Structure formats: structure tokens, C-alpha cells
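Q: Protein A?
A:
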Amino acid sequence: MRRGRRELRQKNYSRNLLFLGGGFLLLIILIFVITLVIYNNKLKNSTYSTLTAEKIAELVPNEIEGSDEKIEQASTDIGKTIEDAINTMEKNIEEKESENKIEEVNTENIASTQIITEKTTNNEEPIVTKDPEFSIPVEGEIMRDFAKDTLIYSETLDEWLTHLGIDIKADRTTVVKSAEKGKITAIKNDPRYGLTVIIEHVNGFKTVYSNLLTTEFVSEGEEVEKGQSIGTVGNSASFEICDEPHLHFEILKDDVNVDPTIYCK
């Protein structure tokens, strides 16, 4: 038991000795670091003072060495010289900014003058394209009217339907003419209204000629004039097969069907 206590005291003594040695070593390192920091600060201050003194010595003339009053006067003169230089720089900057502003104003005036000159020289009113004045593509009686908001009875289908064009009665093979000048955008066989020609006009207008027999007079993409032959009347519309030979004619404005009788003169 005594031996155990003796060993415990030795362990405590060794541990205390180790802590004491470590603390002492840490204290030495801390003192070294503080000394190094103080030395560096003094070195910087000394260098700064030396450089400042050297710069002042370069600015002060040799003739005034040994005279406190002359040194003081020289310092004042140096201060004034620096202040004058700063003022000169600021003045030059202000003058440069004023010149730039004047140049910008002159540039704007020149641009405005050019615009006014162009407006005066090109004193032309904007070109306004008038809506086309359509003519009836084939002479004959209107046997079925335009009915967009009402229903019309179809003998072929035996039901009431809307009708987005007008049906103009005409003999078979009667020549169909373009209602207005334009460009042929499509020649097709419509499943409802048979052989069809579509012409595109100005201001978003289109005309549609359906239930045709032939279209050998024109081709797709061709420019046509008002009154030019584009086909012949037939009986190719499956939705109107029970009707007499006629031309199914439509007018669209911006892809919306309108009443052809309002636009045809």
C-alpha cells in the first residue's frame, strides 16, 4: 500500500514538472514574438522618418542649411507649390470636362440639324395603301347569300349550316375572273368545296374561288391582275353537289370571313 502511494506521488510530481516546463517554454516563445513585433515597428518608423527626411532635404535648397527661419520658409514655399499644383490639376480637369460637354452639345446640335434637314428634304407624306375594290368574279344571280351568324338549309347535306361565302349562279365552263390584283397562294382540291383557287391581296385581304371545273389559266405563286381569267365554273363541291352550277366565292380580311357583297363594287 505504501509502495502504491509512493508511485502515485511520483506520477503527480512528474506531471507537475512537465506542466511547469511547458509553461516556461511557452512564456519564452511569447516574449520572443513580442520582441520581434516591437523591433519591426521601430524599423518601419525609422525607415519612414529617413525617407521623409530625405524627400524634404531634396526639396529644400542647399543655401538655406543651418537656418531655422529659412527652413521654415522653405517648408511653407513647398506647401504652397504643392497646393498650386493641385489647384492647377483641378482647373485642368474642370476645363477638360467643360470641353467634353461643349463637344457633346455640338454633336447633339449637328444630329438634330441633320434630322431636321432630312425631314425638310424628304418632306413626303407616308404612303397609305387603300383597301382593294373587288369586282364580281362572274356575272350571275346570287343563289345563296353569306350567312355567318345565321343558318341556311343545304339540300345536299339535308341540314341547316352556316355559309361563309356567296354562291353565284353561272353556266358550266363560264370563265371566272380575278376580283382584284394579287398573288395566287394556293390551288387545291378542297374536300368540301372542290377545286379552289386562293388569291392574296393587300391589307390582309384574300379571295377564294371554289366549285371550279378547271384552273389551267394560272399557276400557284403567279401574280394576277384584276379581271384576269383564273378558271371556269364547274360542279366539284361535294357539299353543294345537288345545287346548279355556280361559283362559291369568299372574301377574308385578316383570315376572317366577311360578306363579299359589302366589298364588291
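Q: Protein B?
A:
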Amino acid sequence: MLTIITYAFGIMYTPGPVNLLGVHSGINGKVSEHIGFFIGIAGAMFILFVTLGFLGNTFINPKFIPYMSLLGCCYIVYIAWKVMTAKVSINSSSGEGKVLSIWDGLFMQLLNPKGLLATLPIATIQFPAENIQGSAIVIWSIGLSILAFGAPFSYSMIGLLIGKKLNKPIYFKVFNIFMSVLLVSVAINIGYEYVYLKLI
């Protein structure tokens, strides 16, 4: 179960459009004004986790889990590579007057491919593999949604505390490398636990 949390943390807390908007709100001193936006993001992740969780539990045959896990491992390594090689730039001069609402967060995350890609391996592979079903899917979805709220909120707080120094992409590059290593370690863990041990 630690694998689920580690993967979710690794994928949710890497710099992406939502988290960079969090940084932007912090740099501009608008953390409290964007709480609704962060709640909207968490709401979208809850919807994705619950929907995919129940679909995964209904349609995923347990004997296919090792093969789906292998695909999931490959995908996680691919994401880690994309994160490590990503170029990050922050434009702190754009959108200073715009306060993002709960609906902005909800729709942005529902339409954000990273949101779907973050929830898919957890809901369709890791939930069934850990026998998380029924009301447990809802409980886990709530917990993971709280984690999703924390991602842009923490970036916003970092932006508020460090301010203009975050305009240097090197800080995000170091963070990307750290998150990439974390994601690869999750892929290895899933590969060993759900592929190697199940098939050998």
C-alpha cells in the first residue's frame, strides 16, 4: 500500500501545469485566494479515482494483473524519463490579476492528461492488486484527493516563501531529478512485487 502513496506522491508533486500555477499564485501572494482552485483539483482527482477504481475492480481479471503491472512499470519509467528531461520555465508576469476558482481547478484537472495518467495505474492496477474494493475505493480516493490538494498548495507556499528565486529553472530541475528517481524506485517495487513474484 506504501507503493500507491509513493507513486501518487511522485506523480502529483512533480512540476506540471497545475503545480506551476500554484507557484505562480504564491509568488504573487495569492495563496488564500486560490484555495478554491486547489479544492477543485482535489475534487477532479476524487472523481477520477472513484470512477476508474470501480471500473478497474469490475473489469480487471486478477490473472491479468502481472501483465498490466508490467505495462504500468514501463509507463512509470517513461514518465520518470519525461520528468527528468523536462524543461521548466516560469513566467511570473502573466496572469497576476486572475484568481482561479474551484471550477477552474475542477475542469482543468479533469481535462489535464496528467490527472488521468496519474490515476489510471493506481485505480486499475494497484487498487485491484491490493484488493481495494467497494467502500475502500472511496476511502482511498478521499485520501489520495487530499494528497492531490497538497501538491499545488505546497507549491504555492514554496512560491510565497521563496518568491522570485523560483524563477530559476535549476531548482525545478533538481526537484525533477529527485522525483524521477522516486518514480523509478516505485516501478522497480511494482515490478518485483506484482510481476516477478506473481509470475515466478
